[in-house]
Amino acid sequence: MDIKAGIQAAIFMAIFGAILSFWVGLNQIRSARGLTFYRLRERTMRRGWRLLWTGALLLLFSLLAGKYGKPAAFRYFKVTPTPSPTPTITLTPTITLTPTITLTPTITNTPSVTDTPTPTSTPFIPPVIEALFVSDVEPNPNAVFSPLQFSTKMENFQAVSPSTYFVNPIDEIFAVYSYANMIPGVQVTELWYRDGEMVHYNTFPWDGGTGGLGFAECNYTLCDGWLPGAYQLQIFVDTDWKVVGLFTVEGDPPTATPTLTVTPAP
Description:
Strand order of the largest sheet: 5-11-10-7-8
Strand content: 15-25%
Number of domains: 2
Number of helices: 5
Distance between the termini: 76 Å
CATH topology of the largest domain: Immunoglobulin-like
Shape: elongated
Largest sheet: 5 strands, mixed
Order of helices and strands: HHHHHEEEEEEEEEEE
Radius of gyration: 29 Å
Number of strands: 11
CATH class of the largest domain: Mainly Beta
CATH architecture of the largest domain: Sandwich
């Protein structure tokens, strides 16, 4: 049972216990009114009220568990997401990454032009960036990444209002994912493209665990001011391509206003 299912089971049991407590408590109070002896009547009445308060507390617990249970559980328990290799397989039809190239046949009706997208159909690491590798740890071929979720805000390794469409002004974009079967120290590379042209890269030895949640990020300065266009993020483990994500940016980015610096003359 995962954390989400456990919290839902606890909420269901609390609601069921609250209903049972209310029902038994009301019956106790109703039966106490018909008792002749004062002490027995008071004891039965107190028992009924205790059951009513217990039902109220269980109902309050179910409300708090539904609202704060999952964030609290993720704070104290290590997240072990269940990897789904199939999403990465469904991403392999990266032919959808080259629609701008498929528009070129409008210039000439000859089908030979449609052969040009084949060199870019499979993502690869440019040799200049591959030369920067510093890790010699062998990658695990079974390492998997979930589909990327893009957002301008992230909380507890969760993308807030993920989207694939953003409008300037934009300061920073996060790409959140889950992973499994990783090996610490293996070389990981992130390549950010705009309209097929690389705008930022990041290559580093993996400093995370074997499984969990991770993210890539690029800000206004690193990603060339978030100019409008079609963006994609490619993630590699060593030289093996693992996942790619697409998003679009529209609108003109804000222009920086130059500041005048006064230099004193001798």
